Amino acid sequence: MLAAVLFLAGSACKENRIPLPPDTPTTKPDPKPEPEPEEVPVYLKVDEKLEIHALDFSKSEPEEGIFEYVFSANGADPYFHLEKFEEELDPYHVVLDFEYKLNSAQEMQIYYCTPGASEPKSVKMNLKAATAWTRFSYDMEMDIENFGFGSAGHRLRLDIGNDKGVNFSLRKIHIRKATAAEQAEKQDKIDGILARKRKAADLKKYLSSSFTDKLTSVTVTKDNVTITGMVGSTDCYLVEIMPSGDVTDNAFPFTKAISAKGGFNFGESRYITRDGFTYDRMLSRWALAKSVDGKLQICSHARYADEVPCSSNLAEVKMKTKKGLGGFFGPANQISDLDDLGISSVTMNITPCTFFMTTASGSTYTHQYCGKTYYVNRSQVDNYDKLLKLCQDRGIVVAAIILIQRTATDSRVAKAIVHPDCNGGNYSMPNMTTTEGIQTYAAMLDFLAKRYSPADGTHGSIHNWIMHNEVDAASTWTNMGSNVPEMIVTNEYLKSMRMCYNIARQYYPHAKVLASFTHTWTQYDNSDGYTTKSMLTDLVDFSAAEGDFEWGVAAHPYPQSLLEPRLWEKDTKATYSMESGFVTFKNLEVLDKWIRTPKNMYKGSIKRALWLSENGTNAKSYGESDLADQAAGAAWALKKVYKLSGIDGIQWHNWWDHPDEVAQGLRIGLRDQNQKVKPVWYVYQAAGTEKEAQVFDPYLSRIGITSWDEIHKTIN
What we know:
The protein is α/β, with parallel strands linked by helices. It is 24% helix and 26% strand. The chain contains 16 helices and 32 strands. Strands 20-21-25-27-29-30-31-32 form an 8-stranded parallel barrel. Strands 1, 2, 3, 5, 8 and 10 form a 6-stranded antiparallel β-sheet that branches. Helix 6 (411-417) crosses helix 7, helix 8 (486-504) crosses helix 9 and helix 12 (624-643) packs parallel to helix 14 (679-686). 40% of the residues are buried.
């Protein structure tokens, strides 16, 4: 329906014109405006014949045929369906409109239910709290087009909030035409979508191009940046590309003419004033450009810093075993698990927006970055110190998961750091579109890397950095807007990875950044998601073009359905092929083969780090049989992890069952919600020890095999 959108923005539809009488002149000096078609909204009712899940509700009919509904959530995942369409939607009727009251701000998810689809498609958005009737409208036209929605028999499902305690009222639920203002806004969105598609195509062309001019090195010292390269003509310029810019630009904050053919070597000051900030050019890319029609056009691949100065020469801290814990939070009464389970690595969620500030508030630490003072909440950072010291004292390798929340303690930090196109999801891609955004994000990372440098160890250590969460599920986890091509998301993600890498390597010479992905591989089941394999391919291509760095993979190979522990029979989309739809515990050989393929290695010969940084099998209940299924799935996974040399470690998630997840049927912890050990705990403890066969082998018959050798496969 894209063509319809473009047409409607400029004129009325031909079919809606009033025919002229036969004697009407063929030309008129001042034709009257054509009348708009009469608006007849499509009012919708809640379908009381279908399940109204986890909701108590009542209704009234203040206007004939137009109902008012009052809902109160009494459990997790509350939702309801609207009645199915009796006939196909008029193509003009694309705006969902209603009035609502809501006791607290909530996320709303709209499901587009079409008969015969394997599962409904959906979009998410936010509803503000409202004590008085408040109007909400959402233009569904692009969703209708993308999801093939709007035929007779189709219906909408609304999920408002995620748990009990949510109270809301709805009235005047209907679908209507877009207003002229909404059409104009939509046209702006379409223009933005088309511009992003063009940029994605330009980036793809850039990666596949072979340039005769090139940069050969970028070296950063304490005070300078040295750029070397080779040009074949005298009409070239050296240009600097800040994280806020791109290779697709035609204007740059710094240009320097190259006056002679052949090799060149330029030294530039490392620090420079830009937009009122002292900017560290270690964060920039550098490239060559030529003037084309009065505008600069890139004529080489860009290059990041190959080397940065490091304050230590500490040897790399390595994992002693492959076993780890995900989302470590360190309750005092179960710290013994770190020793009893042989834990050698953990991941820890770090949410800098909750403790990083531009002005002092309460008890704070201070941090100086590029001449500016920032403030850090003392109590929150002290808690990180305690947990990281616990790990350091046991020689545990820590990967910090950097999560950019959509709100912040400091409103200026929120405005600076949250991506301007973020429109939902749990977290945001960091904003690197402005100098202040770059500086704020860099200062956050610099504080963490400096304070938790393994070479210092005063406050504990962070060794590796997992950048954000599940970037292939962009709309849900690391959001930077809707309808963003995968190439652009990967490009922005790479900027974040590079920034963290260069900053962290100033303090620990073996710091690595890991890219976080779901269990999808060549198939995704999210309308605003991307495939892991495609994003990894782009990361490899960018690294080859712009100078490689030691990034790795933080994979989440949960079973195909998180609720189903019997992955050996349920994971039908996880096949033993590099074109598998999913990568789960069932077919970890796919990840192992990818990470050990020379083309994908660091500089073609060094295996990249591969952590299974968030994963676990579920117990459908606390019954004996379901607990045994969970343990059997874990035994399967661990047998593969210890067999496959490409996998460095597995960080089991959760340590114990979270009550909110239990309410949704998810019990993936090693302990139950009361912290009592489950059979899976003993499986995890035995993995890689002399007790492994004794604990693992009783699960062979449950899986339906006679030897663990049967589960290991060769990938096509």
